Automatic annotation (TrEMBL), chain A:
Annotated family: Belongs to the complex I 24 kDa subunit family.
GO molecular function: 2 iron, 2 sulfur cluster binding; metal ion binding; oxidoreductase activity
Positions that bind [2Fe-2S] cluster: C79, C84, C119, C123
Xref: InterPro entries: NADP_DH_HndA-like (IPR028431), NuoE-like (IPR002023), NuoE_N (IPR041921), Thioredoxin-like_sf (IPR036249)
Cofactor annotation comment: Binds 1 [2Fe-2S] cluster.
Protein name: Formate dehydrogenase
Annotated keywords: 2Fe-2S, Iron, Iron-sulfur, Metal-binding
Lineage top rank: taxon: Bacteria
Cofactor: [2Fe-2S] cluster
UniProtKB/TrEMBL annotation, chain B:
PROSITE patterns, alphabetized: COMPLEX1_51K_1, COMPLEX1_51K_2
Species: Leeia aquatica
Cofactor: FMN; [4Fe-4S] cluster
Name assigned to this protein: Formate dehydrogenase
All copies of domain NADH-ubiquinone oxidoreductase 51kDa subunit iron-sulphur binding, residue ranges: 426-471
InterPro entries from the UniProt entry: NADH-UbQ_OxRdtase_51kDa_CS, Nuo51_FMN-bd, Nuo51_FMN-bd_sf, Nuop51_4Fe4S-bd, Nuop51_4Fe4S-bd_sf
Protein family membership: Belongs to the complex I 51 kDa subunit family.
Keyword Iron: yes
SMART domains (UniProt xref): NADH_4Fe-4S
Pfam families reported for this sequence: Complex1_51K, NADH_4Fe-4S
Assigned keywords, A-Z: 4Fe-4S, Iron, Iron-sulfur, Metal-binding
Entry's Gene Ontology molecular function annotations: 4 iron, 4 sulfur cluster binding; FMN binding; metal ion binding; NADH dehydrogenase (ubiquinone) activity
Length: 155, 517
């Protein structure tokens, strides 16, 4: 972390440190501010919250949301839970992999991360996905192709 | 300058269907014509096949225009500026007359589509706040009694009587107690919690405040999954509004109740209540062994009332109208209403709040209009990823906790996922096992490792390898999961797996006899 990032983390610690159960809100805040949770925040967190480093690392690795690597430029999260599956999610995930030339969870030259998620709460309009944080519903293969194309142009 | 008031939902799914673009286009079209447009962004009615549903009030009646897109803004505005009911190809007449809405018995969702989510004025003008008002005139014990008499059972899945839980927390001796709302809603096919939080957050806040008064809690948490960013933002805004109005914080009578939103981090198991409590405490979301029950030793070891969003949301109505009114709806031991969530491959997908008791056939075929693909309905998974696949032959089953339990199925959170005949239930059973493996908290061996083995066993069956032995192994494994798991993730994964095997052996390449345990 550079000095500016360290200051950001210190400020977040000052805000949250004394709240009960502060670790999750802190990890979210750090990831929101820096884009990821760098390994070198672990000693800081463990000291401030009076936890062992193993406990902090254990929490970070337990939850799917926390990234220990910088994020790719674009993220695609395809819902694969039952409601979306029965409405064609499998085809969407296959199409995304094919068009972006990457497998689930991989980032090709830092551009894309594709992840499977389980339910976005849009099941009345399945299949659903999130592209760069934005929800899209009743997604057809044609629509996904369009979305990926316009997203690529925006790179 | 003429003036026009319109209503358009801001529910996240409706926004995904283009509502914000419609709003912008309407503003532009209005400005061009010199019309002062007041566009009120409301909650959604939950009739998603009609969204974005634009509404206008004509002589006290809300008229609708369905599936409005930005390109319609100009022609829609012309229609709306003419006197009387809007004449436009997208006009659908009075919204309350839509058959799928008319049939509903909306209690929790009585304000859906009518009010702006964070407006206290809208909330009170449409009946909000009366429950808390009445609760304040009663003793804590009387409030608990009211909840007990209503027959309300927890809506998060296990359907435990709410009043008994309230009484346990109330009678626990402790300096500090908590009220915690489980808003982790991870089940596929469910979105009612999200709609309450995004659409009528003050209802949840009112329910939690009544609960806090009744059990003597001063601090509350709402644990919302991170997949619901708009719910998080709306709840935070609503909490701020409620604080400003003196509903939260220290109120006029000197009672204190603070409420805070905590955001999950992408783990299905954190919907299990003890895993959720661990997560709020800042730990890994692993399941705690019970006893002690959370009502006696929950968050930070203190007595804690944990309920689902829909359970808390039912409370203001119960207090406002009395337990007897609520108790009068439903069937058997399932009292009141459940917001059924119709999803998957279904034509009229959306939110159907009904008193317990209608059949799946009525819900899926009559109200839901069958599949969206137009192919025959094959089955419906009821109650989320841990719920059974119900075949057509059981579609006459009334939606009631006991009736479902009697057929090795469950209602859970009220989600119904419809599948057509192109879906292979052998593959869905495999997915259920894979999901269990992916989301296991890791405490129990059958759940952690058995689920991975389960995927392999199903694969072998699907590939016709040593079928007889592998079917026996799968049943054995399901038995172990059923009896040897600490929580329902491992304990109920056999429901989707064995129901698929029992009712659709052909999808595994088996005859009914071969599929038998
Ligand atoms: C794996 C698993 C996931 C669960 N997910 C949720 C959930 O997302 N929301 C919820 O309210 N209850 C969920 N539950 C049930 C809770 O453990 C608990 O019974 C419920 O929150 C109690 O509230 P109620 O009395 O209002 O039902 C889940 C249970 C299990 C075993
Ligand atoms: S059944 Fe699975 S999720 Fe539940 S406690 Fe055991 S290992 Fe954890
Ligand atoms: S299952 Fe995909 S949004 Fe719910």
């Amino acid at each position: 972390m550079n000095e500016q990032q360290q200051q950001v983390v210190a400020a977040l610690l000052a805000t949250w440190q004394h709240q009960p159960g502060a670790l999750l809100p802190l990890l979210h805040a750090i990831q929101d501010a820096l884009g990821w949770v760098p390994e070198d925040v672990v000693p800081q967190l463990s000291q401030a919250l009076n936890l062992s480093r193993a406990e902090v690392v254990g929490v970070i690795s337990f939850y799917h949301d926390f990234r220990t690597q910088p994020p790719a430029a674009h993220s695609l999260r395809v819902c694969m839970a039952e409601s979306c599956q029965v409405a064609g999610a499998e085809a969407l995930s296959a199409l995304a992999g094919q068009q972006l030339g990457i497998r689930e969870g991989e980032t090709a030259d830092g551009q894309w991360q594709v992840r499977l998620v389980y339910c976005l709460g849009a099941c009345a309009c399945s299949p659903a996905l999130q592209l760069d944080g934005q929800l899209h519903v009743q997604v057809t293969p044609e629509r996904l192709t369009q979305l990926l194309a316009s997203s690529r142009e925006g790179v | 300058m003429s003036a026009l008031t319109l209503y358009l939902p801001q529910d996240s799914v409706v926004v995904a269907m283009g509502a914000d673009a419609v709003a912008d286009a309407l503003q532009v079209a209005a400005a061009t014509r010199g019309v002062a447009l007041e566009l009120r962004r409301t909650s959604s009615r939950g009739l998603f096949w009609l969204e974005p549903l634009l509404e206008v009030e004509v002589a006290g009646v809300r008229h609708g225009l369905a599936a409005v897109q930005a390109a319609d803004a100009d022609s829609v505005l012309t229609a709306l500026l003419a006197a009387g009911a809007p004449m436009h190809p997208k006009a659908i007449g009075p919204v309350a007359e839509i058959p799928q809405l008319k049939r509903q018995q909306r209690q929790i969702f009585s304000r859906a589509g009518l009010t702006r989510p964070v407006s206290l004025d809208d909330y009170q003008a449409h009946g909000g706040g009366r429950g808390l008002q009445r609760a304040r005139t009663l003793s804590a014990a009387a409030v608990v009694e009211e909840v007990l008499q209503s027959g309300l059972r927890g809506r998060g899945g296990a359907a435990f009587p709410a009043g008994i839980k309230w009484r346990t927390v109330q009678q626990a001796q402790s300096a500090s107690k908590y009220v915690v709302c489980n808003a982790d809603e991870g089940d596929s096919g469910t979105f009612a919690d999200r709609m309450v939080m995004e659409g009528d957050p003050l209802l949840l806040i009112e329910g939690m405040k009544i609960a806090a008064l009744a059990v003597g809690a001063t601090q509350g948490y709402i644990y919302v999954r991170s997949e619901y960013p708009q719910a998080v933002a709306t709840l935070r805004a609503a909490i701020a509004a409620a604080e400003a109005a003196g509903w939260l914080g220290e109120d006029a009578s000197g009672q204190t109740f603070h409420l805070e939103v905590r955001v999950g981090a992408g783990a299905y198991i954190c919907g299990e209540e003890t895993a959720m409590l661990e997560s709020i405490e800042g730990k890994r979301g692993t399941v705690r062994a019970k006893p002690p029950i959370p009502a006696l030793a929950g968050l930070f070891g203190q007595p804690t009332l944990v309920h689902n969003v829909l359970s808390f949301a039912a409370v203001p109505g119960i207090l406002a109208d009395g337990a007897a009114t609520y108790q009068a709806m439903g069937m058997g031991r399932s009292r009141g209403t459940l917001p059924f969530q119709l999803a998957g491959n279904v034509r009229f997908g959306g939110l159907y709040e009904l008193a317990f008791g209608p059949t799946l056939h009525e819900l899926v075929n009559e109200l839901g209009g069958g599949t969206r693909s137009g192919r025959p309905v094959k089955a419906a998974q009821v109650g989320g990823p841990l719920g059974a696949w119900v075949p057509l032959s059981d579609f006459d089953l009334p939606l009631d906790y006991e009736a479902f339990a009697a057929r090795q199925a469950m209602l859970g959170h009220g989600g119904v996922v419809v599948a057509d005949d192109s879906v292979n239930l052998g593959q869905m059973a495999r997915f259920a096992m894979a999901f269990c493996a992916e989301e296991s908290c890791g405490k129990c061996t059958p759940c952690r490792i058995g689920s991975t083995r389960g995927v392999e066993v199903i694969d072998r069956i699907l590939h016709k390898q040593d079928t007889h032995a592998n079917v026996a192994l799968l049943h054995d494994l399901c038995d172990t999961l059923l009896h040897g798991s600490l929580c329902a993730l491992g304990g109920m994964t056999p429901y989707p797996v064995q129901s698929a095997l029992r009712h659709f052996p052909q999808d595994f390449g088996l005859t009914p006899e071969e599929a038998q345990p």
